[in-house]
Amino acid sequence: MLVTTTIAAVRARREELARTGRRLALVPTMGALHEGHLALVRRGWELADEVWASVFVNPAQFGPAEDFASYPRDLDADRALLEREGATLLFAPSTKEIYPRPPATTLDLADLTAGLCGPHRPGHFRGVALVVAKLLNITRPHVAVFGAKDWQQAVVIRRLVEDLDMPVSVDVCPTVREQDGLARSSRNAYLSPEERRCAPVIVRALEAGARAFARGERGGHALEAILAGEVGTERSARLQYAAAVDPETLQPVDVAGRRVLLALAVHVGSTRLIDNFLVEER
Amino acid sequence: MLVTTTIAAVRARREELARTGRRLALVPTMGALHEGHLALVRRGWELADEVWASVFVNPAQFGPAEDFASYPRDLDADRALLEREGATLLFAPSTKEIYPRPPATTLDLADLTAGLCGPHRPGHFRGVALVVAKLLNITRPHVAVFGAKDWQQAVVIRRLVEDLDMPVSVDVCPTVREQDGLARSSRNAYLSPEERRCAPVIVRALEAGARAFARGERGGHALEAILAGEVGTERSARLQYAAAVDPETLQPVDVAGRRVLLALAVHVGSTRLIDNFLVEER
What we know:
Two copies of one chain form a homodimer.
Chain A: E1 2-4, H1 7-20, E2 24-29, H2 35-47, E3 50-55, H3 75-84, E4 89-91, H4 95-98, E5 106-108, H5 110-113, H6 124-139, E6 143-147, H7 151-163, E7 169-173, H8 193-198, H9 201-215, H10 220-231, E8 237-245, E9 259-268, E10 271-280
Parallel strand pairs in A: 1-4, 2-3, 2-6, 3-4, 6-7
Antiparallel strand pairs in A: 8-9, 9-10
Helix pairs in contact in A: 6-7, 9-10
């Protein structure tokens, strides 16, 4: 595995690869890799002949009051995990390499970021869109692989790629979960043992919503109330939002159709966690 | 020359080209080609092994009160001219091909578009940035060639390409002029004979500004006043703006340094024309 911090080295390797005609998958990450990320790498191998990963904690997608400084970083561990999965290149640039000067360009997808995490993380998706555009232009993969836990992010990126006619397909992989159902997240590392015990209330809430949908509940507000009610049963969990939205447009549904995305953001202690279920009629 | 209206055909041809390793130049245009455009094609041949052109009158860069409907279109003439210059592909898509649905993504370069044409053409540079990003992603040239007459556009595109790490270089060619100095523009076709006679006041104003700079005048306001004063000598010319700005940041200069961009937008009759001189110390 080639480990590099420079755009120039990535571009040079990409030129070599172009001459072979081999297909490339990219797994963009912020590091602190866990099973969820590794599933993305494995998916990359299904879709392409070569899999590259990037590790970059992107300051542009963190708000001033958010956890950029404390976000977990362990490049040696990430490198070992990626090596084990057979990734052939790891791009781990510095902030200076990605942002040699403050960008003048803002990428905004207002309609897709007005709800869910958008209003709670002002500027977050502009930061995501910018860095993903940059990473895709630097690595020029045939396919880029993202996780379904960050559903809104995946929808934003899909649309960005479509709107800009970027020559890449976007693949979204199912969320990988712990034994008790908690979605794998680098931020789970922030949880105290007690908080970790409480955190599965998030997936229990989504399961309650999915059961209600299966029973025939289609009211958007009713589904949201079920999610919120379940989160409310756990004292150390504080709901940020519970939403039932169209999975593609991310607009709130008044009455759900055949498919609906149930989505939650919950603070467990001071750790903000998100999760979602795509539920559909059989 | 391959003439095509579809993204798919362009991508297929681009794949073939990639296998040859030949370098590609793109000349994006809105058609109604004149000597200025043809100079861009010739410049493309200096920079690459193959030159493609696009002709697309981009609705996203016209305001509701602007001349999208009446903008001159003559694809047969454009095709003949490009063929004569040896262009090997002409991409002339429909609006539907470029915008199959309204884009959700906004590309904004606020700092570079706050002045000059920006405030007079709200949304114009967002439309330009979006369509150029699309065209570059569809054609993936090694170099894209633009004209210096649209200086602000060139600065915006250069910065967009830098900020998004697009793998393309941006080349900017000198403005081509008529015998009497009037900058070549597709919009010159709108001018009545009488208006055409008056229009060179624009270049005379820039020449007056350049002479003042050569004499040692460095005051931004003083230079602007000289431009405006000259435009004022022609009754049918109505000044929209006269500006002395930094050529890279496009910020107004209080006191000019070694280089300054003198820029004008003038209505001659109902036709809006722009032009600029980059003046520098010897």
